[in-house]
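User:
Note these tokens:
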Amino acid sequence: MALDPVDRHVGQRLRARRLILGRSQQSVAQAAGFTLQQIGNYERGANRISASILYRLALELDVAPEYFFEGLALASGARMVSTIEQREVGVLTRSFEAIQSRDVRRRLLRVVEAVAEAQPNRRLVAAKTRSLPPRRQS
């Protein structure tokens, strides 16, 4: 029987998130109450993940359940969200969190926002609704 494309996509997102967090299949399986074989089958899309299991996995991997569906093509051909390479996002996030200076983080964020805004046909919502207040003058 052929694997369902949605099940494969959800499994790929499960694997990507696990790798971003640097977790083994065994650690996720143990923490979520599954066997190693079950996690492997979920990641390959060989087993369909029920809503309750997806919810438990989302809690264990610290994401919202909808994370697993991001990037999935809709029936209209549109995509739910942009598909950024998840490993790059993980490296970027961990590296950003390692920067101790708040001022350096703010400056880096502004550089990243400026680069993203300069991309053709890109809308950057975060740049228009900055979450960081302006830097205080000393």
User: Anything to note?
Assistant: Residues 86-128 form one domain.
